[in-house]
Amino acid sequence: MNGPVRLLIVDDHPVVRDGLRGMFTGDPGFEVLGEAADGAEALVLAASLRPDVVLMDLRMPGMDGVTAIGRLAASGSPVKVLVQTHLLHVYAKLGVNDRAAAVAAAYDRGLLTPGGR
């Protein structure tokens, strides 16, 4: 990839968005293209801004991250999604939550990247 990684930050908490933006601002390897407060806004911005990576929270009011990830996958978007949530391990351990199944399906389709890899 040439140039910086182009990011879209999606979280319903402004302080989290501010913190994530602050982590990447000033690093020449990244460019924050925009921010969204829910999945619906993320879909609109992803279509118009065409980021390389979406940093996506799962639990948000309105359209949640799982639904947004599914719609990104259905649209054929090449964007990669990095899920940011402290609850993902809980969903996976329970094995009965539809969120875990949705995230696993998105991962299998190559839309999610494992943290730290």
From TrEMBL:
Membrane spanning residue stretches: none
Residues of the Response regulatory domain: 6-117
Presence of keyword Protease: no
Top-level taxon: Bacteria
Modified residues (4-aspartylphosphate): D57
Listed GO biological process terms: phosphorelay signal transduction system; regulation of DNA-templated transcription
GO molecular function: DNA binding
Record InterPro entries: CheY-like_superfamily, NreC/VraR/RcsB-like_REC, Sig_transdc_resp-reg_C-effctor, Sig_transdc_resp-reg_receiver, WalR-like, WH-like_DNA-bd_sf
Pfam families, per the entry: Response_reg
Keywords for this protein: DNA-binding, Phosphoprotein, Transcription, Transcription regulation
Name used for this protein in its record: DNA-binding response regulator
